[in-house]
Amino acid sequence: MIRFDKVTKTYPSQTRPALQNISLEIERGEFVFVIGSSGSGKSTFMRLILREERPTAGRVQVAGKDLAKLTNWKIPQLRRQIGTVFQDFRLLPNKTVEQNVAFALEVIGKSRPVINKAVPEVLDLVGLGGKGGRFPNELSGGEQQRVAIARAFVNRPMVLIADEPTGNLDPETSVGIMKLLDRINRAGTTVVMVTHDQAIVNQMRKRVLELDSGSLVRDQSRGVYGYVR
Ligand code: ADP
Ligand code: ADP
What we know:
Elements: E1 2-9, E2 19-26, E3 31-35, H1 42-49, E4 57-62, E5 65-66, H2 75-80, E6 82-86, H3 97-106, H4 112-125, H5 141-153, E7 159-163, H6 171-186, E8 190-194, H7 198-204, E9 207-212, E10 215-220
Parallel strand pairs: 3-8, 3-9, 6-7, 7-8
Antiparallel strand pairs: 1-2, 1-4, 4-5, 9-10
The structure holds adenosine-5'-diphosphate (ADP) (2 copies).
């Protein structure tokens, strides 16, 4: 699903690469944690998958497509296949829950009947049935993140990228969010999640990719957060 071949990314203003010679493959249906200290290259890794950045050297492929060969007008098509969830939810404050989720389908040209069917279905799936008429500021943090996940998933993307999705949530709420991401993963969506949450990584026992100063220093299946090399 995602393949990096000897990928190096050096930002124009920098001398040290943000990512250095990364080669890895993430299969369809995998659940992968990306860990590493601040500045280790996690965001850069995600931005390369979304083609928000281009590698300085090497090749990034998503769903069999070499991202360097994507023409600009094909980029929206790629991003449509990749749902994104962030620490700060990024909901539209002036739209209701339903409208936030529907908007994701409107912008890709789905018809009203399709939207009217899909939105309540996905809100039920994330445990927000009955809250479609609320505004984001009327919801708890955990509920807002569920809306963001519903919005990311409503189009059934091949890949879900989650950048510290539990970073603003208490441990109990975080467990609920992880159960939801696990369910989405089991439904077939590949999940790539950046996190600093040791408890979650240790509970889930999924593949762990650890970055350190731009290098991939660990690729461990059923991994844990802290690891003595
Ligand atoms: P992380 O997400 O693990 O904190 P990043 O990928 O954001 O790491 O950053 C990796 C390195 O690249 C850091 O040294 C950071 O300062 C640098 N960097 C990130 N984004 C940019 C940018 N847009 N321009 C210049 N340097 C950047
Ligand atoms: P949590 O379940 O994370 O502890 P809260 O205690 O903040 O969340 O919220 C409990 C319930 O109250 C939720 O269902 C939420 O939708 C509702 N709620 C929270 N804040 C508001 C608000 N400002 N206006 C209306 N409803 C709210």
